[in-house]
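A student in our group prepared the protein record below, which I am reviewing. What it holds is a sequence and that sequence's fold in token form. My question to you is simply how this chain folds and whether the tokens agree. Do not assume that whoever made the record got everything right. I have pasted the whole thing underneath without changing anything:
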Amino acid sequence: MARPFGVGFQRDASPLITAFAVRPWCDHGLDASRGARTLIHQLVIVVVNAYLLAGIPIAFFALVGRLSPAFALPRANLILYWGWFAVTITASAIAVDAL
């Protein structure tokens, strides 16, 4: 019986080849009982990662503002930029995942 994509396991194949073999017939879909919980969990992970990722440039601007008063921004503006940047990252991550 042929496997999808022509991938199969041979008895005399080395363990290295079988460890990295493509197995497209594995079931990675959502289980019906865990579907909604898994989706919410994935969305929470995306939002938390977006806020962490958005904090990198904001922390850079805060550090530059500490080092030189010419680049100092008010804290309220930094928090506002952090929020909008995180929303942008979250929206783009969801859009890329939807495609």
User: Anything to note?
Assistant: DSSP finds three helices and no strands in the chain. Residues 58 and 79 are 8 Å apart (CA to CA). The radius of gyration is 23 Å. The chain has a mean pLDDT of 75.
